[in-house]
Q: What sequence folds into this?
């Protein structure tokens, strides 16, 4: 099953990279750009009997390795072929 | 005095640390490869600096799940002493042995220079007990992710228990006091039992012999005496 995991910085955690990109956008004339935050997306395939099992396994993966829950939140999308 | 230095793919301060420790103790530490799941008993385990696993995913994240780290966690749970320097500190945070994390430097630049560190009062750690509180050490840093961050309750706990070992302190010669944006100028922290120390600065790069300072030798000697 195809799984997409989005990892984003928690609110309140400084994102120096996002801040630099925001000021670059503003200097390019996009003065409407605000609150730029940079995260990452991890895609993977999980062999599982159903979508909820895949979701459960992906959440375990996030907790044990993929996300640092001190500073990051994660969300999981499972593309169910059925 | 038995010391083991853990080596991961991408560690690059392991040999400098080996030389530093050997200079002080006269005995060469063991280098232990990350795939070893068993270790001979030692008095101190050191996680050296570098770029373990290329800093992929997050600095220290993959190293923290290596087999040798399981052995290190066993050692620590029995009250064993552990020192993590730079990437080694990042690894200790990723294992959860120390609280918080290290994020990107606030000015987005790799910073490589000497800093002044002030030893904090009331530490009660055997690793630092031979140094005077308030003692100032000049030791180099070299990192891109050294900006210490912890959740409010963890920070409060660190303060209450005297677990903040070092803070960046005033230096006119080297640049801004806080080189990376670290919360409360934190440069190094201790575990609750005072036997696990993680720090961004590299003491093994300040052991005299052509180095700009020998304060790292002083610190390593104190730690080695503390665990003996």
A:
């Amino acid at each position: 099953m195809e799984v997409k995991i989005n990892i984003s910085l928690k609110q309140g955690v400084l994102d120096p990279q996002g801040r630099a990109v925001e000021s670059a956008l503003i200097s390019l004339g996009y003065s409407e750009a605000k609150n730029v935050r940079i995260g990452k997306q991890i895609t993977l395939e999980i062999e599982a009997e159903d979508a909820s099992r895949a979701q459960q396994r992906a959440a375990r993966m996030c907790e044990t390795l993929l996300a640092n829950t001190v500073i990051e939140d994660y969300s999981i999308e499972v593309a169910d072929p059925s | 005095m038995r010391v083991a230095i853990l080596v991961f793919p991408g560690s690059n301060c392991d040999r400098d640390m080996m030389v530093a420790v050997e200079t002080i103790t006269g005995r060469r530490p063991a280098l232990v490869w990350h795939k070893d799941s068993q270790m001979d008993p030692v008095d101190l385990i050191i996680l050296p600096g570098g770029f373990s696993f290329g800093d992929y995913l997050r600095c220290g994240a993959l190293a923290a799940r290596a087999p040798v780290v399981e052995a290190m966690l066993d050692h620590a749970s029995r009250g064993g002493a552990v020192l993590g320097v730079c990437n080694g500190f990042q690894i200790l945070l990723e294992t959860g042995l120390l609280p918080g994390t290290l994020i990107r430097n606030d000015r987005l630049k790799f910073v490589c220079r000497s800093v002044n560190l002030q030893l904090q009062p009331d530490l009660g750690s055997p690793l630092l007990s031979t140094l005077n509180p308030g003692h100032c050490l000049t030791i180099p840093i070299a990192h891109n992710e050294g900006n210490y961050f912890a959740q409010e309750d963890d920070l409060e706990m660190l303060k209450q228990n005297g677990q903040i070992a070092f803070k960046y302190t005033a230096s006119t010669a080297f640049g801004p006091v806080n080189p990376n944006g670290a919360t409360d100028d934190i440069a190094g922290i201790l575990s609750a039992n005072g036997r696990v120390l993680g720090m961004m600065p590299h003491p093994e790069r300040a052991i005299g012999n052509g180095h700009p300072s020998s304060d790292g030798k002083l610190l390593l000697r104190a730690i080695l005496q503390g665990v003996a």
The mean pLDDT of chain B is 95. Helices of chain B lie at 14-25, 67-77, 87-95, 152-160, 215-227.
